[in-house]
Write a structure and sequence with these properties.
Elements: H1 15-22, H2 26-29, H3 34-96, E1 111-119, E2 126-134
Amino acid sequence: MSMPLPQRTSLTIPDDTRQRIQALPEEVVGTPSTSELLRTLIERGVQSFEDQVIEETYAEMAAAQAPYRSQQRERRNRHLAARELALHEAEAQEETAPQRGQRQLSQPRGVRIKKSRRRSSQTGAFLRSGRRVKSNRW
């Protein structure tokens, strides 16, 4: 909301305000009239106020979303940790598994471990999972 200044305006500027005006950049101080200077300062003040309001609005939005984001972050971290643990367990199981044609000593006769391949969605590698399957053929 701007109001035009009358043609003739008398204005007394205090000394501290004059010093602050002298500290402004040359394009602001070099204006030919006091009304131009005031208009420029008011525009800058309004712009500064609008920027401050925008920053406060974004800060309020971020504060409102913070609990949701932290909950999502914790959930994502739990899933990643579980996926990594499963990957390490599968690799450890593969390393300790007997070679092809050998039977583990702990397995009872007539029970074999069926090796199936699953494709890991994270690494793209094939994992071996040991599943106990009752078999009459052995």
